[in-house]
């Protein structure tokens, strides 16, 4: 049975809804992801510098904390959305997200206020997670409830592009800011600019969302007096609906979550920390891959209207399970200097000395630069303040061919992301009735993405570090067992228990 719709009579009405919803959701994802995009720099700003690996893992843990609380945001704001409406609920989430992001850009660093710095950042990160927990379900529900039958996958797929585009925009702003200010200034204080810019973007989005009307299906429920009095009890207290929630989580969203975060965030972390690819070049690799792959969200979302949601999502999970290790082995080899021929006659030493502020101390930077026959450049830099050397910085700048091969490998991973993520909003909306839809779909989505998916970079990086200590063969690949395992379990459950024709929930 199909969900009864009160669709706008004109196509322009649907596109207006999609635009208004997508702009706000894109900005929320931008706010949420600039933290992850700047993880390497933030680890040096908010944690002690004497152990860079521990600082980086702590930053990833703080990043993951925002994901872990997303299910709680889903419960709080999902309930609110089913009680008072979709529009005002995700207006509130937008304000919370924008405010907390702006304040992260204002927090003093570790050297200024000590452990209070990471504590404040963690608190603000938790607020971000709560806000995002209420945003996605509202936006997806709002668009779906304006969409005509037979095109729900197509129209909701535009909301699905906002997560990746939010990451793309965050990378773009970071790169532009870094280029404009220079590396030293950016690493010192310029990293705050992308956070502070959030206040302007959120202000624009609030203006747009204030002009939106409430969902027609929710308005119909209000007029008929059928709004749920207790969405949480109806969603999780009734056996039939709870079964749908669990199936959505363990048969779809958990697998989708690990594919999403492996193909984008862990890929960036792997390129920067394991392959040591230079910061700007690594971000270009991810940004180009995201830009080229983003239209496939809409392609697979529209295709799901014709052939069903399940098989497309399961295919994306299975491809990840089967190909992640070969892909990451190939990525590693592209930056592996032992497989390249060094042009020893071009080796050079570069030394730079600069005064630290208005003090009498100088910072001396010595860099050893090596060149390889495929165009790759390796730079090993040793900064020294006074007589004390600090952590060695290793940077690999890939040659032309290796750069594009790395980009293609990341693009393939993002293509898997579009397969699992493009149809999932329509899939979740169609599982639950209108009166409890916001609450019911938000929880499995945010547990799958916030907990299973959001923990991917942290768990995978931790597994790699553990494997290094135990001298495990191909230690750099060991982090992949986490997303492969979760995706494999979800593939089996989804294939066995999700109807290939997908569920259609009636509102009668």
TrEMBL record:
The protein, known as: MFS transporter
Stretches assigned to the Major facilitator superfamily (MFS) profile domain: 17-502
InterPro entries linked: MFS_dom, MFS_sugar_transport-like, MFS_trans_sf, Sugar_transporter_CS
Cellular component GO terms held in the UniProt record: plasma membrane
Keywords assigned: Cell membrane, Membrane, Transmembrane, Transmembrane helix, Transport
Organism: Larkinella knui
Compartment(s) where it occurs, according to its Swiss-Prot or TrEMBL record: Cell membrane
Membrane disposition: Multi-pass membrane protein
Keyword Transmembrane helix applies: yes
Classification via CDD domains: MFS_ShiA_like
GO function term, MF aspect, one: transmembrane transporter activity
Domain of life: Bacteria
Major subcellular site: membrane
């Amino acid at each position: 049975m199909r969900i009864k719709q009160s669709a706008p009579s004109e196509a322009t009405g649907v596109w207006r809804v999609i635009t208004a919803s997508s702009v706000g959701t894109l900005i929320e994802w931008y706010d949420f992801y600039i933290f992850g995009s700047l993880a390497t720099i933030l680890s040096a700003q908010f944690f002690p510098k004497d152990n860079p690996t521990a600082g980086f893992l702590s930053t990833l843990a703080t990043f993951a904390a925002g994901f872990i609380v997303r299910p709680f945001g889903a419960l709080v704001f999902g309930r609110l959305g089913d009680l008072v409406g979709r529009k005002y609920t995700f207006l509130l989430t937008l304000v919370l997200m924008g405010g907390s992001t702006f304040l992260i850009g204002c927090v003093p660093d570790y050297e200024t206020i000590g452990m209070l710095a990471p504590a404040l950042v963690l608190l603000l990160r938790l607020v971000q997670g709560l806000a995002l927990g209420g945003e996605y379900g509202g936006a997806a529900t709002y668009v779906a409830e304006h969409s005509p039958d037979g095109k729900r996958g197509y129209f909701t797929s535009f909301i699905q592009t906002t997560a990746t585009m939010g990451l793309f925009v965050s990378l773009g702003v970071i790169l532009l800011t870094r280029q404009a200010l220079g590396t030293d200034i950016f690493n010192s204080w310029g990293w705050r600019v992308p956070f502070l810019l959030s206040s302007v973007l959120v202000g624009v989005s609030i203006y747009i969302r204030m002009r939106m009307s409430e969902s027609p299906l929710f308005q119909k429920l209000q007029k008929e007096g059928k709004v749920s009095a207790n969405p949480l009890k109806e969603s999780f207290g009734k056996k039939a609906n709870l079964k749908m929630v669990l199936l959505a989580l363990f048969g779809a969203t958990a697998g989708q979550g690990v594919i999403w975060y492996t193909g984008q965030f862990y890929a960036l972390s792997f390129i920067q920390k394991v392959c040591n690819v230079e910061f700007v070049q690594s971000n270009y690799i991810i940004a180009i891959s995201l830009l080229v792959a983003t239209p496939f969200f809409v392609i697979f979302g529209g295709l799901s209207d014709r052939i069903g949601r399940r098989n497309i999502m399961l295919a994306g999970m299975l491809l990840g399970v089967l190909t992640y290790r070969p892909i990451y082995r190939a990525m590693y080899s592209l930056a592996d200097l032992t497989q390249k021929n060094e042009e020893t006659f071009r080796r050079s030493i570069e030394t730079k000395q600069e005064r630290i502020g208005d003090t009498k101390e100088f910072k001396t930077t010595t860099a050893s630069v090596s060149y390889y026959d495929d165009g790759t450049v390796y730079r090993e830099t040793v900064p020294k303040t006074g007589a004390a050397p600090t952590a060695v910085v290793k940077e690999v700048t890939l040659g032309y061919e290796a750069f594009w091969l790395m980009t293609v490998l990341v693009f393939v991973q993002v293509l898997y992301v579009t397969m699992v993520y493009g149809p999932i909003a329509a899939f979740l909306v169609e599982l639950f009735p209108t009166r409890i839809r916001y609450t019911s779909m938000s929880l499995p989505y945010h547990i799958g993405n916030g907990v299973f998916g959001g923990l991917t970079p942290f768990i995978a990086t931790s597994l790699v570090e553990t494997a290094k200590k135990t001298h495990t063969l191909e230690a750099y690949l060991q982090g992949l067992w986490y997303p492969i395992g979760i995706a494999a379990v979800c593939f089996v459950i989804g294939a066995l228990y999700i109807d290939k024709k997908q569920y259609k929930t009636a509102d009668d």
